[in-house]
Design goal:
Elements: H1 9-23, H2 35-42, H3 46-58, E1 62-65, E2 69-72, H4 77-114, H5 117-135, H6 139-156, H7 160-168, H8 170-173, H9 191-202, H10 206-225
Antiparallel strand pairs: 1-2
Pfam families: FCD, GntR
InterPro entries: GntR_C (IPR011711), TF_FadR/GntR_C (IPR008920), Tscrpt_reg_HTH_GntR (IPR000524), WH-like_DNA-bd_sf (IPR036388), WH_DNA-bd_sf (IPR036390)
Keywords: DNA-binding, Transcription, Transcription regulation
């Protein structure tokens, strides 16, 4: 059986408004019904409606002008759907990254003192596989090696409660290693920080280990932020060539 996902009321409201724009063939600049009218038509509370409207406004589907009303900003159904999907995935991954900073960051802090020589060797082997698979274009295998690197790190904390908490959200964490947005190379730039993190662990340098772990997640979050609604990673101006 498939997993049943909970859908928030605000998401249902946003979807309903999106369908209304499509079915009424509204175009950019067309006016939507008033807040009072939408509340009555959908039989929802004003706060839930406003939350749904804020979501649609944030992804530039509508524009709310105080004193004038709600207007369509982007009537292209595909673009609307793509924006919602991408924005939902970005929001999920960024929030999960915050959780990683807390839980995995604590694992790094503990692992500096508790990691065994066998676990250090295991993490190094993971990185060797990770690099090999990246160089040979075997992206799925590279992602699996990356995930294994972090799983050894969790075990190296030698805190069964922390490891259990991390394991309990394993399915959510795995989204980082399943080619989010369908972009296989999205987190390639994080590889060097895996190397420097491992180096700091070997040297039992807690301060440096935490710095390298923070840099790793900084790169991950920057990549997530740069994904546009068509599922492409935009390249920052400073990273582009001069030609």
């Amino acid at each position: 059986m498939r997993t049943i996902k909970k859908v928030s009321l605000s998401k249902m409201i946003a979807d309903e408004i999106k369908d209304y724009i499509k079915n009424q063939r509204l175009q950019e600049g067309d006016k939507l019904p008033s807040v009072e009218s939408l509340v009555k038509q959908m039989n929802v509370g004003r706060s839930s409606l406003r939350e749904g409207l804020r979501f649609l406004e944030a992804i530039e589907v509508i524009q709310v002008i105080n004193g004038k009303g709600i207007f369509v900003k982007d009537a292209n159904v595909y673009r609307i759907e793509a924006k919602i999907n991408i924005e939902n995935e970005k929001s999920f991954l960024l929030q999960m990254s915050e959780v990683r900073r807390a839980l995995e960051g604590k694992a790094v802090e503990l692992a500096v003192e508790r990691i065994t020589s066998e676990q250090l060797e295991e993490m190094e082997a993971c990185l060797d596989r990770y690099q090999h698979f990246l160089e040979t274009g075997k992206r799925n295998e590279a992602s699996q090696a990356d995930a294994s690197f972090h799983q050894v790190l969790y075990r190296a904390s030698q805190n069964v409660i922390l490891e259990g908490i991390i394991h309990s959200i394993r399915d959510n964490l795995d989204e980082f290693w399943k080619n989010p947005f369908g972009i296989e190379s999205i987190f390639d730039n994080s590889f060097p920080y895996h190397v420097t993190l491992l180096k700091a662990l070997k040297e039992r340098d807690q301060q440096q280990a935490m710095k390298e772990f923070s840099k790793l997640l900084d790169v991950v979050e920057q990549a997530i932020h740069r994904v546009d609604f068509e599922g492409r990673v935009s390249i920052p101006p400073e990273s582009r060539g001069s030609n």
